[in-house]
Design a protein that fits this description.
The structure is a homodimer of 84-residue chains.
Chain A lengths: L3 E7 L7 H14 L6 E8 L4 E8 L2 H10 L7 E3 L2 E2 L1
Antiparallel strand pairs in A: 1-3, 1-4, 2-3
Chain lengths: 84, 84
């Protein structure tokens, strides 16, 4: 199973704290292994409410399923096939 | 001068190659010091044309000025005050 890198984007996290983001991230980490996904890092701009998650996994759909089951679905997932 | 972390997003890089992304990134690196900015990494999804750049610097405006002078302006810059 190929491992690709993904960036996904969430909206609506205005005013969310570090503790709340850590809790959301932990919910992903708790189940990510079931889909062969790993969420490496999450960054939040609490002013705009944007969250960016960097992950690895077999497919966009696998990333989306973990986020959905963890309670924070997003349809905005990009496969990062090129990086510098 | 405070150093903050930023994510900025570009659209329209459909079909761009690794070499072209490296060239664009090098154009940022060549002048970033003039604004106290550092572009750490850039990721591209050549299918959707999205680029995500992770940087540090003193302000959103400084990040925007470097990208604009390097030839790839974007208004979409987020200050990532929280990360996990």
């Amino acid at each position: 199973m190929a491992t690709n890198r993904y960036m996904d984007v969430h909206d609506g996290f205005v005013g969310v704290t570090k503790e709340q983001l850590a809790e959301a991230h932990a919910a992903d980490l708790a189940i990510e292994g079931e889909e062969g996904v790993h969420f490496e890092q999450a960054w939040l701009d609490p002013e705009s409410g944007k969250v960016f998650c960097l992950s690895t996994g077999p497919s966009k759909e696998a990333v989306m399923r973990i986020h959905e089951r963890a309670g924070h679905p997003t349809a905005e997932v990009y496969e990062l096939s090129i990086e510098v």
